[in-house]
Amino acid sequence: MEIKNELKLFDNDFMNHLTQEAGNQIDYWDIRATISVGTTIDFTDQKSTEISSYEITNCGIRTFVNGGWGFYVLKDLDKDLIKTSFLKSIKLAKLTESLTKHKFKIKEVNPINKNFKIKTKRKLVDVDIEEKILLVKHHEKLASNYSKKVKNTHTIYMDSVKSYVFLNSFGSNIYQDLSYLRLLNIVYSQKGGVIQRSINSVGGLGGFEILSTEKAENLSVKTAQESIQLLEAKSPVGGKFTIIADPKLAGTLIHEALGHACEADLVLSKESILAGRIGQEVAFDDINVVDDPSMGQGSKFGLPYELFGSYFVDDEGTPSQKTVLIENGVFKNYLHNLETSSRMNVPPNGHGRASSSSYKPQVRMGFTYIEPKDWNVDEMIQDTKNGILCEDFLYGYTNPTTGNFQFKCKFSYKIKNGEKQELMRDVALSGMILEALKKISAIGDKNTFGFSSGICGKGGQSVHVSDGGPYIRIENITVGGLN
Amino acid sequence: MENTIDIFELANYGIKIAEKKAPNFKCAEIFVGKSEYTNIELEENSIKFSEIGSDHGVSIRIYNKRGSLGFAFTNKLNKRIIEKIIKNAIKMMNAGTADPNFQNLPLKYKTYPNVKKLYDLNIKTLTIEDSIEYVKELITVCEDDDLAISQSGDFTSSCNISYVFNSNNIEVFEKETIFSISSNIIVKNESTGETSNGYESQIKRKLKDISGTNTALEALKNAKRNLNRIKIKTKKMPVILSPKGTINLILNPIASAINAELFQYKRSFLVDKREKVIGSEYLTLEDNALIDGAVGSSNFDGEGVPCKNKKIIEKGIFLKSGLLHNSYTAGKEGVESTGNASRRSFSSVPSIGISNFVIQTGTSSIEEMIQDVKEGIFLNSTGDSANIATGDFSGLISQGNVIKNGEIKQALNETMFGINLLDLFKNIDAVSKDYRIYGPFKAPYVRIKDVQIIGSKN
Known about the structure:
The radius of gyration of chain A is 24 Å and the shape is globular. In chain A, the strands form four sheets. In chain A, strands 1, 2, 3, 4, 5, 6 and 7 form a seven-stranded mixed β-sheet that branches. Chain A is of the alpha+beta class. Chain A is 21% helix and 40% strand. In chain A, strand 16 and strand 17 form a beta hairpin. Chain B is of the alpha+beta class and 458 residues long. Chain B has two domains: 4-222, PmbA/TldD superfamily (PmbA/TldD fold), CATH 3.30.2290; 230-458, no CATH class. Chain B contains nine helices and 21 strands. In chain B, strands 7, 8, 9, 10, 11, 14, 15, 16, 17, 18, 19, 20 and 21 form a 13-stranded mixed β-sheet that branches. A six-stranded antiparallel β-sheet of chain B has the order 3-2-1-4-5-6. Chain B starts with a helix and ends with a strand.
């Protein structure tokens, strides 16, 4: 694999030099350096508002001694500058260590010396800007022409190619060639005084072929269709209802409401309601939840690319792997980075992720999902007396300390005596994690298993994540509305 | 951070190349941002992480006479790279569509305001050890309290310089400092096992204005107020917004709704409401960039246009002048830019943003406002945001309490509320004289009558 010129300085000699400099002053160090090259194309109402290209370099040097971390961030990949910054970072770790109350060690793991590359059919750098623009224009046109009710269209194409080197004091030296693409489409429709909007996106790790999939080709028409459908939707009436969540909502619900509380850094800082609950029954006894960011998930959904929530290794050099969170309703594992796994005395499970090399890795999810079971969706609806069928979401959040969560659904249909009825918009759901997990009463089969991808924020950093599941049913959920 | 001369030379070189190389050239702009920062993090009420970092970069915007824009950026600062990104930007420009609404980049201004105290010299001598002292203040508050079991938080300092150059002879630069501190305290009621958290932060231009102790004490107060949570029944009642609640439900939505871009696309619930009554007489608001030492203050905006003070709402009337513009939206509407072009960094094209959003304070104290409420809600924060196109809001009370017979009582679990913002503005029946400043917001307590509360108690 061809290593990018500016990253060639991170060779074995350089690594030996750093190892010598560190000596026994510190317990652990790692260096991440990335060069990202990318394009953004932004169109509104069939006109370009931004067409841009960039090249950005990031480098972060992290050091650790006995409970104290140091971090030094720079932007120029100059050998001498990195060497002096490494010494400054060591100083920072030692200073932190002199003040920290919680002393601990990072447990050594086997080093990895490997290169990884995202396979692409059409390399992003080989596609002309003109071709990328044509594609955006095509989607803008499809959305604008969909109906006279369409008032505004907005399409954003973003791609980036990242060359990424990782070194650490365990002897890992990992080089990765990564490739990301995302197409986002927003349509506003209007009828009388009512304005409604819908957003959809496709994307993942791969090349330009991502946009040739059926899902991508239908993107803007689907968005236009949805925004028009929402014009006729009714406002919900607040109260308590049985909810049937589609795969997208079920996935984001499990990500927000359960996943964040599984992050071991929040457990150690006493911010998680799941602290001390390993081995306890926390959910409906027929539910399994896992986080599996390993590569190869896209093909399960018939997609010729990788999901956004997938990675080869995390940003601390730990290989991605499947971790069981809940098995038959019993809480099994937290998600870990090197620090939390060392402190909780378990092997790391590959969840140390950072939004770029300028940020420190935090404990983050990858691809979190509910495993399918045996309910047929139609039967699930027929079996529901007074409920709401909720499809897709606008956003959601959870307070991991209290366990209170809240979600806004994109589409919601009233269910009366087993029949799907009128469409409602802006349905807001709220509940308490530990109560809601036990109120799950049905889990759908593999025929409807689906996922969605997005960007998740924590501590000022954003990373790509995916989540999913089958349709699930939850009893007695609070629904907010304007009336 | 000292080589200002190099930046000027580099930028002028870039503009010249752009003028020479771009076919059908109309105008170009070079923006340079540089920053240096430190960050100390606290976890489990113990210092855990120290960071020093720097960032810098340059971006170029080039327009041709058809109004097509090309944009490119990088974080390397040398002539070779400038040439490369200009070449890229020209390629992007050539590929773009014509835009007859584009007029020009800002023309040269004769005078700029002279806003003071945007830069605090103390940053030059601030050491990591000094920064740690602020974090130690946080630690002490948590250690000294019986209910507090953990705290996370951080202290950051940063110095930023931004430079704007364009081919219409704009050439400005500004240096500013930002200091911030935050605390998230976890408290536990040992007898019931219930935990809750409280968050507080400060963002200031001046180091001396930062207080770790006050930040942690306020976080602790919020955390304790959020213990003993109950569920309540659905009912219509008055709501008192804390300063944070006022930001969530009044200031932030208005900040979005008066963005001229949203307005021009007719995606704001305030479209067609100019010069009309949109709220009660208690609602008076301005966007003032000229307050000495304020976080949202600036002498010029992200395109080099002088900043100013703009009246937005006067006694409930949304003023004709109440829109925020950058040069593009202003040109499209045939008015002057209001100096509200905002750039997160060199890597983004200018959008539109507020400076300091100042709501006029009232005459009652917060105590008096609460005393008058027999049964109501004290709303400290919500994680939800309104639909700006329609003004509809429905969401969760993330932190809030019951008010009973003029006193703040138990905290709320799983309680939601819904209202259209125009109704919310019209239902304001008191604004406190007490206020808080959070970043660019000056926010008092605000009382709203008749809000639909959706409880989860059966």
